[in-house]
C-alpha cells in the first residue's frame, strides 16, 4: 500500500458514514412507490451498469475515484485474508496494527463503509426497479442472489447489519445476524422462484448474458448459484439452528436445477474492466504466504503449493516454502528477513485472473458436511463428497490426479522461525491427514472436510475466515504478539471486526442499535450468532 493511500484510509471514515448510507439512501429510496414507471424505464437503461457495480463490489474492485486496489486491501486483504491464515502483509509500517490485534479502525471499517456507500444501495434500487415487472423477472432474481452474496460477507464480518429494513424509514433498521440470515434465505426463495418462472414462461436461457460477470451465462446457472449459496449459508448456521440448517440444505440439494459441481461452473468475477485486486496488492510486494498454510501444504506435500506460492529466496532455504506468522514485529530480527519468505505466485494470480467467490470444490465439501450431519437427500456419503471436493480442486488448479494424495498419511509440519530464532518456533497444531478413512469420529471427519475446503477456497479469505471461526478448523497458529489490550483472547483468536467508529460518533442511536443486536462488546473478541464455539452434531 502506498503511504499516501495509507493516510487516505485513516481519513475515509469522515467521508463515509453509516448515517449517509441509511439516512441519505433511505431518503432517496423511501418506499417502493418512489419509482414511477417513467423513472423505472429511465433507470433500467442503466441497469447493466448497476449490475457491473454490484458484481465488481463483492470482491471489491469498484472505483469510486481513488483507484481499486488499495480499497480492496483494507476491505479484505489486511483483515480476512490474514486472519484466515492465507496471507501476511509484511510491510514494516503495518507490523504494529492488525497483525498484532491492534486493530486499525480505518481498515476494519472499510468493508462496511464501501459496501453501504457504493454497493448495497445499488442492489436495493435494482430490486425496486425490477420486482414488479414481468419482463424483468430474470434480472430481479439475479439481483437478489448478488445482494445475498454481497451482504452475507458483511454480516459474517461484523454481525448485525442493515438489510431487510433498508429504505423503510423505521426507527431501528438493524437486523440481528439471525434475522439477516433468515432474510437471506427468503430472498433466495424469491430469486429461485423468479428465475424458474421466467424460464417456464418461455424466457431465454441466455437472457441474462448482458449482465453476466460472474460466470452465469444462463438463467439455470443463476439458479445453481442460488442453490449453492443457500447450501453455504445453511451449513453456516448448523451449529446454532439445526432445524433451519437442515431445512435450507435440503431445499438446496433437492432443487431440480442442482448445485454447481464442476470447476467450469465456478462463480467468479471477470470482464468489463474488472481487474483482480489481489494481483494489484501483490504488485506492491505485500502478499506473503501465511505460516499455517505453509505448514499444511508442506506437510501434505500438496501439489497446489507451487501453484499458490513461489518458493522462498532466503539464503540456504531457496526452493523451500516459508510462511510468515501472524503477530510478528518488524523488529523481531531483521525486518527484511521475512521479505525473503514465500510470496504469492504472480503467474497464477494476475490482473486478468477471475476473482473466485464460490467454487464447485467448496460445494462438494458443503455436501460432505451436510451428509455428515444427516442431511442427505441424494444418498451420498461424506467420504464420496469429500474426495470429489479434493479432486475438483485439483482439477480447478491443474494439480493433476488426487488419488494418491487422498491416501496420504502426511501431517502438517512444525513451524521454524528462521528470522526470530528458536524461541519463536511453533509445533504444528493440525494432526489430521488427507486420508478420510483414518478419522475415528464425526469431529475428526469434519476437521478433514473443513481443512481441505480451506485449502480449496484459496485465495478467498472472507469465506475461509468465516468457516474457521464457525468450526475451529483448520487449527491456525496463534498470534505471536497480542496488543489488543485484553479484548481478543490469544487462544480463542479474533472473532469479528468492529463497526465503524466514525459512524458511532455521527449516528450514536444507530450504533447503539447495532451493539444491542450484537449482544456483546464492539471489539474483535465478541462471537457472532453462528459462532457457538463447538460443532453440534
CATH architecture: Alpha Horseshoe
**What would the principal axes of the Cα set say about the shape?**
globular
User: How many runs of DSSP E, i.e. beta strands?
Assistant: 6
N-to-C SSE string, H for helix and E for strand: HHHHHHEHHHEEHHHEHEHHEHHHHHH
- Total domain count: 1
Largest sheet: 2 strands, antiparallel
CATH topology: Serine Threonine Protein Phosphatase 5, Tetratricopeptide repeat
**Adjacency order of strands in the biggest sheet:** 1-5
Residue windows where pLDDT falls under 50 for at least 5 positions: 2-36
Number of helices: 21
Oligomer: single chain
CA radius of gyration: 22 Å
For the terminal residues, how far apart are their CA atoms? 43 Å
Average pLDDT, rounded to a whole number, is 90
Strand content: under 5%
Structural class of the secondary structure composition? mainly alpha
Question: Roughly how much helix do the residues carry, as a percent range?
Answer: 40-55%
Keywords: Signal
Signal peptide: 1-19
Protein name: SusD/RagB family nutrient-binding outer membrane lipoprotein
InterPro entries: SusD-like (IPR024302), TPR-like_helical_dom_sf (IPR011990)
Condensed summary:
This is SusD/RagB family nutrient-binding outer membrane lipoprotein. This protein is mostly helical.
Amino acid at each position: 500500500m502506498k503511504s499516501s493511500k495509507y493516510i487516505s484510509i485513516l481519513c475515509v471514515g469522515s467521508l463515509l458514514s453509516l448515517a449517509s448510507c441509511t439516512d441519505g439512501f433511505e431518503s432517496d429510496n423511501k418506499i417502493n412507490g418512489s419509482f414511477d414507471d417513467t423513472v423505472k424505464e429511465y433507470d433500467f437503461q442503466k441497469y447493466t451498469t448497476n449490475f457491473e457495480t454490484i458484481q465488481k463490489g463483492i470482491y471489491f474492485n469498484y472505483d469510486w475515484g481513488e483507484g481499486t486496489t488499495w480499497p480492496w486491501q483494507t476491505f479484505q486483504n489486511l483483515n480476512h485474508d490474514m486472519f484466515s491464515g492465507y496471507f501476511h502483509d509484511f510491510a514494516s509500517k503495518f507490523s504494529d496494527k492488525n497483525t498484532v490485534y491492534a486493530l486499525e479502525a480505518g481498515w476494519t471499517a472499510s468493508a462496511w463503509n464501501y459496501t453501504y456507500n457504493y454497493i448495497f444501495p445499488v442492489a436495493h434500487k435494482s430490486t425496486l426497479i425490477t420486482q414488479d415487472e414481468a419482463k424483468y423477472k430474470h434480472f430481479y432474481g439475479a439481483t437478489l442472489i448478488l445482494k445475498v452474496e454481497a451482504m452475507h460477507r458483511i454480516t459474517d464480518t461484523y454481525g448485525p447489519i442493515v438489510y431487510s429494513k433498508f429504505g423503510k424509514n423505521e426507527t431501528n433498521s438493524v437486523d440481528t445476524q439471525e434475522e439477516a440470515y433468515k432474510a437471506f434465505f427468503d430472498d433466495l426463495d424469491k430469486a429461485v422462484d423468479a428465475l424458474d418462472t421466467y424460464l417456464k414462461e418461455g424466457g431465454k436461457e441466455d437472457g441474462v448474458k448482458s449482465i453476466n460477470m460472474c460466470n452465469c451465462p444462463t438463467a439455470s446457472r443463476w439458479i445453481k448459484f442460488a442453490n449453492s449459496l443457500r447450501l453455504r449459508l445453511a451449513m453456516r448456521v448448523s451449529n446454532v439452528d439445526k432445524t433451519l440448517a437442515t431445512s435450507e440444505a435440503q431445499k438446496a440439494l433437492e432443487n431440480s436445477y442442482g448445485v454447481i459441481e464442476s470447476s467450469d461452473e465456478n462463480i467468479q468475477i471477470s470482464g468489463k474492466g474488472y481487474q483482480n485486486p489481489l494481483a494489484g496488492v501483490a504488485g506492491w510486494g505485500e502478499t506473503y504466504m501465511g505460516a499455517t498454510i505453509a505448514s499444511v501444504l508442506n506437510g501434505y506435500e500438496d501439489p497446489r503449493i507451487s501453484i499458490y506460492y513461489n518458493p522462498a529466496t532466503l539464503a540456504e532455504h531457496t526452493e523451500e516454502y516459508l510462511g510468515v506468522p501472524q503477530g510478528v514485529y518488524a523488529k523481531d530480527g531483521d525486518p527484511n528477513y521475512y521479505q525473503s519468505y514465500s510470496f504469492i505466485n504472480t503467474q497464477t494470480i494476475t490482473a486478468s485472473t477471475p476473482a473466485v467467490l464460490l467454487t464447485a470444490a467448496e460445494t462438494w465439501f458443503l455436501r460432505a458436511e451436510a451428509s455428515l450431519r444427516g442431511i442427505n437427500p441424494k444418498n451420498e456419503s461424506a467420504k464420496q463428497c469429500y474426495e470429489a471436493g479434493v479432486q475438483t480442486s485439483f482439477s480447478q488448479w491443474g494439480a493433476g490426479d488426487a488419488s494418491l494424495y487422498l491416501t496420504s498419511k502426511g501431517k502438517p509440519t512444525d513451524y521454524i522461525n528462521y528470522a526470530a530464532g528458536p524461541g519463536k518456533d511453533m509445533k504444528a497444531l493440525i494432526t489430521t491427514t488427507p486420508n478420510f478413512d483414518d478419522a475415528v469420529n464425526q469431529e475428526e471427519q469434519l476437521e478433514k472436510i473443513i481443512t481441505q475446503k480451506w485449502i480449496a477456497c484459496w485465495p478467498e479469505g472472507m469465506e475461509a475466515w468465516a468457516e474457521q471461526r464457525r468450526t475451529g478448523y483448520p487449527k491456525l497458529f496463534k498470534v505471536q504478539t497480542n496488543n489488543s489490550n485484553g479484548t481478543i483472547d490469544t487462544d480463542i483468536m479474533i472473532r469479528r471486526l468492529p463497526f465503524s467508529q466514525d459512524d458511532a460518533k455521527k449516528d450514536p442511536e444507530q450504533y447503539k442499535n447495532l451493539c444491542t443486536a450484537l449482544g456483546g462488546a464492539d471489539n474483535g473478541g465478541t462471537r457472532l450468532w453462528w459462532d457457538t464455539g463447538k460443532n453440534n452434531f
